[in-house]
Amino acid sequence: MKVLVLGATGGTGSHVLRVALSAGHDVTVLVRDASALDVTDGVRVLTGDATSPDDVRSAVAGQDAVLDAIGSRNIRHPIEVEVGRALLPAMHEAGVDRLVVCSAFGVGDSQDDANTLQKVFFHTVLGKVYAAKEVADAEVRDSGLDWTLVYPTRLTDDPATGSLATGERLPEGRGIHVTRADVARFMLAQLTDATWSRKTVVVTGAAD
Predict the structure, then answer these.
(1) How far apart are the first and last CA of the chain?
(2) Taking the mean position of all CA atoms in its chain, how far away is CA 159?
(3) What one-character-per-residue DSSP string does 5-66 give?
(4) Cα–Cα distances in angstroms (integers) from residue 74 to residues 16, 22, 78, 79, 128, in the given order
(5) Which label site among 5, 97, 124, 149 has the fewest CB atoms less than 10 Å from its CB?
(6) Which residue, among 69, 81, 57, has the nearest Cα to 10 in the 3D structure?
(7) How confident is the model at residue 121 (pLDDT cuts 50, 70, 90)?
(8) Residues 103-118: pLDDT tens digits?
(9) pLDDT 10s digits, 141-192
(10) Which pairs count as long-range contacts for 27-36, CB under 8 Å and 24+ apart, including other chains?
């Protein structure tokens, strides 16, 4: 498939890029700084801004699917809403239907399954980011596209385990951590699996 990866220089996005390449996909990335990419061999690299409608329109054209792993690096000025408002119209214009977005556990109704300390953290330290993700995710749900919203629990940089628990709610008896590598593999799997089409899925690892 021809796949656009957004957020390819980030912690999770860099894993998504590597997994997409290893799966044999034709991968395009849109990045501000190409020198920040972990890998470029076999990658179509476009330099631009994921909040720019023109840059995103150029990147989306000709793709089969979009994997969005963008996360706000500045928690005071989240960009998720701006990215979505550039991306969703571009996908419609280009006739690209499949969209997989890495959001976060604790956004929207998923916060009901968070513990007290998590809720405090989500609403204070990450308050602006989570508010932006909630708006952006709602717009994805209303987009009419074939979307999947992935809500990973606390992300770690540990090696992939190959063991995930998934559900519309946080699976009982499971941990509150998941590796970025496992999340990347799960996102890639959604390109050919309709199980979570037009659904939100909480993704976590084995019990801690």
Answers:
(1) 36
(2) 19
(3) EESTTSHHHHHHHHHHHHTT-EEEEEES-GGG-S--TTEEEEES-TT-HHHHHHHHTT-SEE
(4) 21, 31, 6, 9, 10
(5) 124
(6) 69
(7) confident
(8) 999 998 887 777 777 7
(9) 999 999 999 999 999 999 999 999 999 998 876 778 999 999 999 999 999 9
(10) 27/3, 28/2, 28/3, 28/4, 28/59, 28/63, 29/4, 29/5, 30/4, 30/6, 30/55, 30/56, 30/59, 33/9, 36/9
pLDDT tens, residue by residue, 93-102: 999 999 999 9
CA dihedral 115, 121, 122, 128 (to 10 degrees): 170
Q: How far apart are CA 91 and CA 44, in angstroms?
A: 18
10 Å CB burial of residue 135 (0-12, 13-18, 19+) is: middle
Q: Is the dihedral of CA 166, 169, 170, 173 positive or negative?
A: negative
Strand-strand pairing, 26-31 and 65-68 = unpaired
Q: Give the position of tokens 């980011």.
A: 129
Separation between Cα atoms, residue 15 and residue 10, nearest integer Å: 9
CA 80 to chain centroid, in Å, comes to 10
Q: Which helix (H) or strand (E) holds 200?
A: strand 199-204
Distance, CA of 159 to CA of 200 (rounded, Å): 25
